[in-house]
Amino acid sequence: MISRLVFLIFIIQVGFINAQLTSELIGTLPDEVLESSGLIFYNGKLITHNDSGNSTKLYEIDPLNLQILRIIDVTDAINTDWEDLAQDDDYIYIGDFGNNTGNREDLSIYRISKSDYDVSNVLSAERIDFSYEDQTDFSGTQNSDWDAEALVDFGDQLLIFTKQWVTNGTVAYAIPKTPGEYTAKNLGFYDVNGLISGAVHNKFSNVLMLLGYSSQLQPFILRIDELSSDFTFNGTETKSSLGIAFSQVEGITFSDANTYFISSERFQFPNPPITLNAEIFTFKTSDEPFGRENTEEDPAPIDTINPEKKKDELIIYKQFGSYQLQYDLNSDAPIFGRAIFDITGKRVRHTHGERIENNTIDLAGLDSNVYYLTFYLQGSTIAKPFILD
Question: Does 31 share its domain with 131?
Fold first, then answer.
């Protein structure tokens, strides 16, 4: 959630990235799911939900045009802080374990039957309750290490990956998949230097992907290969940038061995005025199917290129080390002004609309930092962040 960041976006702390994946924006999510958190791909559709304080609804979405096709009510559940989705052949699992302050003693996962989901829009859920085996302090503190936003189906277990706000790492925990009360077993810590917000185990490639972002909202993937039946961090971990400039990414899923989808949550900050849309991205890998030949039951790859999708209203280009910023502003509205704000909200550059001559801005004289390019249009304000190296 926005409040959880405590404006960490303003802290200059870039994690080490080993490689880069190429992601593509599919489009903006509907207003009904601006706080999209979990994500799965089932029966050719994306399924998502909103996070804390919202309804107990699942939203089925077309993966190409992002239109809502169906809304499902989970009637006997509470959305204390729904954070992720997972699935196996028979069930969909909803992780109600968001725990930013670390004081929750009602962590749970809801389980709903796929056979019920297929025929009804009103569903009941079974409950899996758990606590962490090594948590003894429940006094609570803002931005604790006991938050979690990532859930994975893994064999006969569910894996939970914590989002450690203090340590900037993650701990994997395991619990059974059947309803009951359990103590989650600690499977190990990984120093990811970032905040883990989603996860998925691709059963077609036997690859586990952890999704996260840095303190500057720069998304990344932590890929884990060579998985055994008992999960451990095994030394194959590779951290890769997603090539997305800034986004509060939240959910990740797959449709085949090489196609992944990512959802982001809407992010807003008042001064300077910043809005990052809730969006769906996709990226591809080149993995071989794991331990099986392709069969007619395997899903066909999804062509995620949608020729009718809209471009971002503001796109920024800047080469590393350059003091020249270029942009494309896709709007028909009159431009009243163009400004640059620094991380304190101070306006450091301003140009009246009638004096804007081209789409190149000279940044000479500005210090290395995070800045926000802002346009004042008739009826709206558009802003996007950029980094001056």
Answer: yes
